[in-house]
Specification:
By secondary structure, this protein is of the alpha+beta class. The chain contains 7 helices and 5 strands. The N and C termini lie far apart (35 Å).
């Protein structure tokens, strides 16, 4: 865990290494830049150069989710773009950006998938991908947390 401190001992922010896309990129030896991407793309990965390019103007959540997705391509060594590769990169990213305990906590206090995603600091599509990776018992626990909130 990274502890960022100000003067004295007041803790401003904590980040778990595996959840910080910039730290993950560094550890993987992947460079990250902001530059023009193909039309409609938020990011792109060049395996030969081990380089992720992010579109300028992305918000913090868009940027983090896109970077982690592109790092999924790096992890698998993807070259080119296929539906199967996109799905693998999506799952890889979702499982690194989201922790199950945090989903339970957010589901217990938020009323919608969009609100839970916002609470977790991810895009709703990333949360939906993550939920698809859960077992039936894990999904049941998430539903129970959400039902307790609704009651």
């Amino acid at each position: 865990m990274i502890w960022r401190l100000t003067r004295g001992t007041k803790i401003l922010h904590t980040t778990i290494y595996r959840m910080n896309p910039r730290v993950v990129a560094h550890r993987m030896g992947v460079r990250v830049r902001t530059a023009v991407t193909p039309a409609g793309w938020w990011g792109a990965y060049d395996h030969q150069r081990r380089l992720v390019t992010l579109r300028p103007g992305l918000g913090p959540i868009q940027s983090a989710c896109t970077l982690m997705h592109e790092l999924g391509h790096a992890y698998y060594g993807h070259v080119g773009v296929t539906g199967k590769q996109e799905a693998l990169a999506n799952r890889w990213a979702a499982c690194r950006l989201i922790e199950f305990d945090r989903v339970l906590t957010a589901a217990a206090v938020q009323q919608s998938t969009v609100a839970v995603a916002a609470e977790l600091g991810v895009l709703p599509s990333v949360l939906e991908t993550y939920l698809q990776t859960l077992t039936k018992s894990e999904l049941g626990a998430v539903r129970e947390a959400a039902l307790r909130m609704a009651a």
